[in-house]
Amino acid sequence: MDYSNLQQYPFNIKLSNVSVYSRKDSLEHAHKEIELIYLIKGKLQVEVNKKKIDMKSSDFLVINSNEFHSFHSLNDNLFVSIFIDYSLIHFLLAQNSIIFSCNSIENPSDNDRKLRKILNELLTSYIKQGNGLQAEFLEKFFKLISYLTLNYLRNDYSVITTNLTHKEKNERLTEILIYIHNNYSEPLTLAEVADLHFISVPYLSKFFKQHTGRTFSKYLNEIRLAHAVNELVNTDKPITRIALDNGFPNLAAFNRVFHENYQIKPVEYRKKNKVTNIERSTSQEEVSVNNSEALTALQKYFSIKDAYESNVHENVITVNVPNDENVNTLSKNWNKLINIGYATDILNSDMQEQLVLLQNEIGFTYARFWGIFNDDMQVEDQSDGNLTYNFTKISKLIDFLIKNKLKPFFELGPKPKVISKKVDQTFVINENIERSIDEWKNLIKAFLVYCVERYGIEEVETWYFELWRKPIFSFYTRIEDESNFLNEFRKNDDEQKNYKNYFNLFAEFKKVIKEIVPSAKVGGCGLSMDLEGDYLEILLTKWRDEVIKPDFLSIYMYPLELDYDKKGIPIKNMQSSNPHFMRDKLQFVKQSMGKTGFDDLELNITEWNISISNRDYLNDSCFKATYIVKNIIENCNGNHVNMIGYWLFSDIFSEFRDSKNLLHGGAGLITKSGIKKPSYHAFTLLNQLGDQLVAKGENYIITKKSGDRYQILCYNYKHFDYSYYLRPEGSFAINEQYDIFDNNDDLNYKLEISGITNGKYRVKEIRLNRTSGSVFDEWLNFGALEEMNQDEVNYLKQICIPHMKVWNTEVRNMSMILNIELEPHEVRLFDIHFVLKEK
User: How does DSSP classify residue 772?
Assistant: First the structure.
């Protein structure tokens, strides 16, 4: 959604119209505006495209542009209709089909609660607004548009055909119906439509009746009437003008058709149902009421609501601790694998120093890296005319890992070293050597024989080997513009239909590895779920038919999506607006694995992050800590993922000519200077969780260690608002990093832990927020200096740590209550340790 040219929009056009109704009925009608109905109290029956929907208090639904609808008040009620100018949405989104699937009655979703909050904010703003406060209303109005677009937008024309009785909906019918809906106000004829679609009049007449259940003229009159009904009630236009503007040749024809359908004359219907406007209005928004009592009732409702919310009791979440035999084991898949990068970088002394620090405090099991057979590792020697192998550098790397209790996770494919500034701009630092299959087989065989002799078969058989496959839609190609991206797609079109080349290569690799190390895990193919997820079932179906299958499936998880052109061809990458991207994608992956007979195949996410970018200051901020904790908690013990490998360990990996500052937006857990980021601290807090899962909720997880020792990890995650998606990734200034979220509200509630042993407990609280543990915020306090002295860097190393607080408390009645008060982007850990039993 691009608001960058919003200043070009003609703001003399009304953006919205807020109408308040009480006990309102209406005939079937339609209008170009998008209408959101929000029921404040009572009941309301809405009929949309011949389908009846019964609404109750706090329900809402969106009626899309040109949808046929009516409503009937079943009893005393109060509801609001918010009309959104269709041309505004069309202008902002620059797309032809704008359909919202927003219905809290039939299709409830996790987003509904937030939308209700936004609606209440908007209506409160309107009710309270006076002179000079229209800007606040507009701010809430655009927030509503943004949230609807990010969470409820659909891209199809199904709404136009949902009220049809035909059995077949084809492309030609859709095109004809769209044309009628777009041109109903013109003197439209059957002959004109037939001519435009290159068919005969008799054929069109029969075709239309067969698939819509009515004649062309009847269908056209229904559309014209529906729009005319709306104007009769909601405008002051003369009835003759309404008739002509909606395609009727004259007033007499309008009166006749209207009476035939509704058994009432247009003038009489207007008298009974005309909405009267109140004084408060502007050129950009207005409020209408069908009686003065409705607005009074709305004002009273929000005044009572405000009073209630100011005195409402704090939210209390109660968790009952189950017996030990009923407690589930917590699957700690987040600390099994860490991406450490390109092979030669790991021989860097600074990198090794940071890796030692990481292992001492967090302790990962596997380290994933690639490029071990690249030219800079000096593996192949042909100086005397014969090919020999030198694994000295590789052995130094593996020796270092094993010494620090890390097992190798090899990426064996020809994956280059890439530094991504943003989605479509990368630096390819090192390319791999081109080799034939036989050359690969000889090299890998010699390497494994060497490793078995050096480290022993017992050690080597615990290693993982992954074979990378170049993505169809690649981050790693030098994509300079959309046309290049399109050419890259077309060039790889054959590959997306046939994975045979990869399967052949994988089979040869696996046979060689299993010959030397039979128990080693060999898998692939690093499928990027963000860009290639739609091809997962194709890949698995074809792989299932192969003789040699993988020991594990590896996928990448970055919340990116493809933007498509009108022909369905991808033209560029874009950030996904889905806050639950990883959860939803993992559910899709598991379903696909089940459909293709790979239910029991080990699943590893070998790369995941908020972005591939190494030039985005969000990577350095507290937001990143809550993003990590949220996604790990949300997906633990649910999707049966064996490993989830965070991308990436250190900012040293992404150093380049443009990374001279203390922070450069790298994806690492540690800065290039060795300062721990909030993302690093997020893993240290996760690492303190127990082995038993007691409970988890929307913003917390409770675990248990042996005895009466409990850990509560909670967080206040904020997702991006519409402004984040309007500009290129990483383009926000340093001081704008916290201005792109949907809100900056604190999160306050009470957490009651019930069923624990009475007695004395020691409570340790660790807070990670913008004032405690954030190198980014401390750097801002330094004025974001480009050049920093070593003593200043050392100072930041010392102070950029979470805040710790310890106290004792008594537990009686087998219950403890914790006050959770979290700032935006804060993560907090409570470690509750039983000390002394009550006498």
Answer: B
Domains assigned to the chain: 6-159+286-311 (2.60.120.280), 167-274 (1.10.10.60), 314-329+689-839 (2.60.40.1500)
CB of 481 closer than 8 Å to CB of 426? no
Tokens of 640: 């049966």
- CA dist list (Å): 482 to 489, 569, 573: 10, 11, 9
DSSP 8-state symbol, 769: B
CA angle centred on 759, ends 758 and 765, rounded to 5°: 105
What are the tens digits of pLDDT across the range 174-224? 778 878 877 888 888 888 888 888 888 888 888 888 887 888 888 888 888
Is residue 176 within 8 Å of residue 169, measured between CB atoms? no
Distance CA 779, CA 817 (A): 36
pTM of the complete model beyond 0.70:
no
Instruction: State the Cα–Cα distance between residues 768 and 108, nearest whole angstrom.
Output: 34
Q: How far apart are the C-alpha atoms of 671 and 754, rounded to whole Å?
A: 41
Q: What is the mean pLDDT of the chain?
A: 83
Q: Read off the amino acid at residue 590.
A: K
pLDDT band for 397, please (50, 70, 90 cuts).
very high
pLDDT-derived band at 168, boundaries 50, 70, 90: very low
Q: How many C-alpha atoms does 722 have within 13 Å on its Cβ side?
A: 19
- pLDDT value at residue 575: 76
CB 343 within 8 Å of CB 394 = yes
Residue 525: is the preceding peptide bond cis (ω within 30°)?
Answer: yes
- What percent of the chain is predicted at pLDDT more than 90? 43
Q: What angle do CA 616, 619, 624 make, to 5 degrees?
A: 140
Residues contacting residue 18 through CB under 8 Å, at least 6 positions apart: 80, 81, 82, 83, 123, 126, 285, 286, 287, 288
Q: What is the per-residue pLDDT for 483? A: 47
- Amino acid at site 163: N
Q: How far apart are CA 406 and CA 408, in angstroms?
A: 7
Alpha helices in 94-215 (DSSP H): 112-128, 134-152, 158-161, 171-183, 190-196, 201-212
**DSSP characters for 370-405?**
E-TTSGGG--EE-TTSS-EE--HHHHHHHHHHHHTT
pLDDT (average), residues 269-297: 53
What angle in degrees, to the nearest 10, is found between the helix axes of 292-311 and 112-128?
A: 120
Task: Compute the average pLDDT of residues 417-436.
Answer: 61
E strand or H helix at 495, and its extent? helix 493-497
Report whether 526 contacts 468 (CB < 8 A).
yes
The DSSP secondary-structure symbol of 283 reads: S
Region label for 132, one of left (φ > 0), alpha (ψ between -120 and 50) or beta (otherwise): left
Helix (H) or strand (E) run with residue 428 in it: strand 425-430
